[in-house]
Amino acid sequence: MATIVDDHVMVCDDCLMIIANDDATGLDHFLDEESAAAREREVRDSIYAAQRDGNTLVVGDSEYDEAFSTSSCDCCHTHLAGARHHCVLMG
Ligand SMILES: [Zn+2]
Question: For the chain, how far is it from start to end, CA to CA, in angstroms?
């Protein structure tokens, strides 16, 4: 049975997009192609690191989302201010 390893992982828009939909195409809206590719790699590496030990990051409860936060993203650790979305790390 799956267990909750961390029930309060707050991630940025970029991480959420890939965690939720495995889709990084939205990055192109803000960045040129090269930056978007670099950013996607960074985010995917962060998610991969978070999921080591066989854990899985899943989208949590949007009730806990923060519309605007200056806290760093728990996944990619960006300090860019913006929305943070609630995720859960399952074991
Ligand atoms: Zn992030």
Answer: 9
Q: Is 42 exposed, middle or buried (0-12, 13-18, 19+ CB in 10 A)?
A: middle
Q: What pLDDT score was predicted for residue 30?
A: 81
Host H or E run for residue 7: strand 4-11
- What is the CA(75)–ligand 1 centre distance, in A? 5
Rounded distance from Cα 79 to ligand 1 centre (Å): 9
Q: pLDDT averaged over the chain?
A: 95
d(CA 51, ligand 1 centre) in Å = 14
Question: Which two three-digit tokens encode residue 91?
Answer: 């074991």
Residue-wise DSSP of 8-41: EEEE-HHHHHHHHHS--GGGGGTS-HHHHHHHHH
